[in-house]
Design a protein that fits this description.
There is one protein chain. The chain has about 300 residues and is an alpha/beta fold. The protein contains 9 helices and 14 strands. The two termini are about 30 Å apart. The model has no long low-confidence stretch (mean pLDDT about 90).
Amino acid sequence: MWVTSSLIKALKPTAVALGNFDGVHCGHQQVIQPVLKQEETVSTVVTFNPHPQEFFTGKRRSLLTPQSEKVQELERLGVEQLILLPFDLELACLSPQEFVEKILVQQLKSHSISVGQDFCFGKGRTGTVTDLRAIASNYGIPTTIVPLHNCEGERISSSAIRQALEQGNLNRAKLLLGRAYSLVGTVVTGKQLGRTIGFPTANIDLPIEKFLPCNGVYAVKAYIAEIKSPMAGVMNIGNRPTVNGTNQSVEVYLIDWSGDLYGKVMTVELEQFLRPEQKFESLDALKNQIKIDCDRAKATLETSPLL
């Protein structure tokens, strides 16, 4: 997939899905579907970098899918191009008419557009999807407006997924995402305290903007590119209070597996929330609990067709 922040370097003509698409969840996938496999056009997702809210507030937003993960998910769907449109003052000041004319028509040579029902654009977010359809039609460009999608009575949204993850409700998050929530990062050297009690862990260095679910212990599947099969594991997100830890860390213990993973990229799929993080009276008590966690994780993951 071609990824660019330059409209000049963009592949054209395009069929464009517009939005932020954080999470690339089930609702987002419905917006993207209409632009896939259109004849003589490049299926293109246009998103904004940084997020407009981040631009105006100056506050970093946590993301369900940082750029590398978003690229992977879009590519899996069959998207051919991702344009990370630089969101700056010049872009923010474009009227809805100017946005369509300058960006979609002149620069991207769009043949079709797809947006979610709640998409807003242009200066002050004054442009609605109805405006978009009307303006684009003046240039002969059809616009697909995708209705908001619900799951069990709740709107599918990035906010709803975040809330489910904050509550440790992984089944809910998985239902809304259409897949297990995952963390992708590089294995780095930690304090190596786990190996002193017989449970060496892989410390995962994640993108700073990656959204983390609630602190606690999880049953997970871990993937390394060089290893064909997924590995069963127990992951801890938290501050490690038993050993007086102060900084939040993400550590994965791989059950019945050993080897050198330093420097490798690990993808961790969260399958079940096992328990909140807690402080134990001794390392022996912690060790006993980890054994229980491993047994629970194995029982959970054995039901998966991949393990």
